[in-house]
Input
Amino acid sequence: MNPIERTLRAVDSVQQRRRAVGLVVGVVKKYGDDRGGLLAALITYYGFVALIPLLLLLSTALGFVLNGHPGAQQAVLDSALADFPIIGDQLRQNVHSLQGSGLALVIGVLGLLYGALGIAQVLQHAMAEIWNVPGVQRPGYWPRLGRSLLLFAVLTAGLVLTTAAGALVGSTLAGTPARVGGLVVSAVLNAALCLACFRVLTPKEIPTRALWPGCVLAGPLFTVLQAFGSLLVTHELRHAGQVYGFFATVIGLLSWIYLTAQITVCAAETNTVLFHRLWPRSLLQPPLTEADEEVLSAVARQEERRPEQRVDVSFSEPDGSLEPNGPPEPGGAAQDRDRSDRS
Output
């Protein structure tokens, strides 16, 4: 064993004996096993596709409603919409000159429907991947569509509740206490909204008690991202905006959506690792820990696509023999199934 490997194995041994460090490593490893970066990229794409028509629809609707009503325009600027990066800035700059268009309204509705259904479907797919649900057990199109509509209802109710809570805090407090109180209330509401969305998106086989730890972490992170997202985007794109113009705004918006998607995926991964106790994980293999074998087995078995299919997973023992990881799952006759041994 060379000095570098000896040092790495010493670090690996230490992290496996430390619960907190081992848990963090377990979440990072599970994120990599599930290709969390690709899931976040898919969420970002459909989120962006849904958000652009939403901006068009929002500006058109506001053009119809707010034209000639300064008080209503100010109410929009004081709502939760004004706190979102890019969106809030565009509202502040253009709310006084918004004009309604019937064609823009139709295009906005159709685009929003396509993008919103797409992101809801991708979020359900991401949760099934993170929880390693076999393909044969995943719901069909119509149940997924029903969940998508329920998700929209939950998000709408959450936006209304967040706006109302922010207005209540702003009317009862002033100055720094109002700002701090608003952030605290927003963090609590974001955590509750995250839990409600996770319950809608996660397969029903997963109990609700397994979903709250990641939401407790994600709620404050969403609040920080919402509160300081505009500042970060403005700082990062201050010079790019002078060169690239509107494209800098698009880049900033994509970055903000991607960070939101990353928080969502990491929160779900945290729930999975905690619920199934998928730690400690090994940084260097061999040997594999029990958590390593459990994760690799779940990743392989989630590829089952038909009731007639069966995936068995085996791992090499020190003597070179193969031992199945866990008992066989119930199903049809063994001779009617496809078997895949992985060592």
